[in-house]
Design a protein that fits this description.
By secondary structure, this protein is α+β, with helices and mostly antiparallel strands. It contains eleven helices and 18 strands. Helix 3 runs antiparallel to helix 4 and helix 6 runs antiparallel to helix 7.
Length: 495
């Protein structure tokens, strides 16, 4: 049974291979006989340079929460006699929030005062005894041991007076603490006790005491949102953010990024960083716990030249893309060498590598002409050609500007402005022919990129397959024509 399945699989693969080869032959013959049909099955399309508005933004969901939250507890234990506030009430600092039964506290104060009076009387008595004993000791009528014992008794009496005064002061404070007043001017957002409930003080309760209520200053609120680690490098403190909540769909609230937390958190196996957005809430419209949609706009450009990101090429895939157009590597290099130098740009844009050599365009054209004619290059010409290609490969693109065709630039640095542009290459139609050009881009919204230099308003750029797709097609063609080993296939491809 197993051998039958293997034979069937091999037979299926052979049938698919023969069908694919036959289809390729038919397409080749069709394109050779009818150039119009070749245009229809072309693997690229041309799009014009357009003027549009482009914005770079980071979007995330978050929760409205107070900036300042205070837990209110009572330093006094006992029954709650009054509870004049409820959730949602705004109170000024010092307003009565709760009143605790004073009877036990008052009794403790009276007891402390009585103990203090006894201690003071004992101190007076020991002072009189000390004076008499000191006189007798000076007359040598008493021993030194008796005198020292009298000194000790008097010092003990004084310490009891100090202890009594402290007890009276503490009892007075506890009696005053029976009135729980608001520590801040704010809103009661949660009340956890009711009138008549007996509470414990955190001063003597190892469990932390009874929490009465929570208060918050809602004049300022914040949004805590989680931003993916891919986008966190674009978010910087001081950036303006637009916050929207479902309760007010027609209104947007403006805030400011105040902090990017340094410690990441994992949400469903995705690494996220908390970001805090500060919002003014004078009208009290934003409530704690509301879900918010936040858009942090990093950059915005109005009416700028733009092209699709898919048209941008890098040094890694420019030659592979040129092969789709029927251009050799040498032809593409010659086009780029003859392309005008880029000018313009913005501060923070990475320039060419320091110390990179300049090239004589006339000299480079002569070198390319020699290569096309099959002439052998001198060592100096080979060195100049290698230097030019190395300089081309050193030019990168902006992280965060997308990776067009799956082979775009990689992230570099944390400066936001440097992430929003870079140097690329494109194929554009010049005199009706595909031409490789250098372009400098600005910001991108991952669909379209701003063109800072290298193109004109009437240009048309070509959208080509990604380098990975081209390589996959080439690899498949090589496997079909060379490795499968079907008799006659390689010979037909070479004819």
């Amino acid at each position: 049974m197993r051998s039958t399945s293997v034979r069937f699989l091999r037979g299926s693969l052979l049938a698919v291979t023969l069908t694919t080869v036959a289809a390729c032959d038919q397409i080749d013959e069709m394109l050779a006989d009818d150039p119009a049909q070749a245009e229809q099955v072309a693997l690229y399309q041309s799009v014009p340079v357009e003027r549009r508005n482009i914005a770079v933004a980071v979007e995330a969901a978050g929760i409205i929460e107070p900036v300042t939250t205070v837990e209110v507890k009572s330093k006094a234990s006992g029954e709650i006699l009054e509870l004049p506030v409820d959730t949602g009430d705004f109170v000024e600092a010092g307003t009565l929030l709760a009143r605790i039964d004073r009877r036990v506290l008052n009794n403790s104060l009276q007891q402390a005062k009585a103990s203090l009076e006894v201690a003071k009387a004992r101190q007076t008595n020991t002072q009189s005894q000390l004076d008499r004993i000191a006189t007798l000791y000076e007359q040598e009528s008493l021993s030194k041991v008796d005198y020292e014992q009298s000194l000790l008794e008097h010092a003990t009496a004084r310490s009891e007076v100090v202890r009594g005064e402290i007890q009276v002061e503490n009892a007075t404070i506890q009696l005053e603490d029976a009135d729980v007043n608001s520590p801040i001017a704010g809103t009661v957002i949660e009340r956890l006790v009711e009138q008549g409930q007996v509470i414990s003080s955190p001063m003597g309760d190892v469990g932390g005491g009874t929490l009465l209520m929570q208060m918050a200053d809602l004049s300022h609120v914040q949004v805590r949102m989680l931003v993916d680690e891919i986008d966190i490098g674009k978010v910087q403190p001081g950036t303006i953010a637009q916050v929207n909540v479902a309760a007010y769909p027609a209104r947007s609230f403006e805030g400011e990024v105040v902090k990017v937390e340094p410690q990441a958190v994992a949400e469903q196996n995705v690494t996220m960083f908390p970001v805090l957005i500060d919002l003014e809430n004078r009208e009290g419209l934003l409530k704690p716990g509301m879900n918010a949609e936040v858009e942090v706009v990093m950059a915005r450009r109005e009416n700028v030249m733009s092209i699709p990101n898919a048209a941008l090429r890098t040094a890694q895939d420019i030659h592979a893309a040129g092969s789709v157009l029927g251009l050799t590597r040498e032809t593409v290099d010659e086009m780029l060498a003859e392309a005008p130098e880029l000018t313009g740009g913005r501060p923070g844009r990475r320039a060419a590598p320091e110390g990179a050599p300049g090239f004589d365009r006339t000299r480079m054209r002569e070198i390319f002409a020699k290569r096309r004619n099959g002439e052998e290059l001198t060592e100096e010409e080979q060195r100049l050609l290698a230097q030019m290609r190395a300089q081309m490969g050193a030019r990168g693109g902006p992280p965060g500007a997308g990776r067009p065709g799956g082979e775009g630039p990689r992230r570099r640095g944390s400066d936001v402005e440097a992430q929003l542009g870079g140097d690329y290459m494109v194929f554009a139609l010049r005199s009706g022919e595909p031409t490789a050009l250098r372009v400098r881009t600005g910001i991108t919204d991952l669909d379209f990129a701003e063109v800072v230099a290298g193109l004109e308003d009437d240009d048309q750029v070509l959208i080509l397959p990604s380098a990975s797709l081209i390589r996959a097609q080439e690899s498949f063609r090589q496997r079909i024509s060379g490795r499968v080993g079907i008799p006659g296939l390689s010979q037909r491809r070479n004819d």
